[in-house]
Amino acid sequence: MEVNIQEINERIQKESAFIDALRLEMGKVIIGQKGMIDRLLIGLLGDGHILLEGVPGLAKTTAIKTLAASMQASFHRLQFTPDLLPADLIGTMIYNQKTGEFQTKHGPVFANFILADEINRSPAKVQSALLEAMQERQVTIGEHTFALPKPFLVMATQNPIEQEGTYPLPEAQVDRFMLKVKIDYPARDEELLIMRQQIASDVPTPNQVISADDVLKAREALHMVYMDEKIEQYILDIVQATRDPRQFKLERLANYIAYGGSPRASINLAIAGKAHAFIQRRGYVIPEDIRAVCFDVLRHRVAVTYEAEAEELNSEMIIQEILDSIEVP
Question: In 3D, which of 141, 325, 155 has the Cα closest to residue 251?
Answer without folding.
Answer: 325
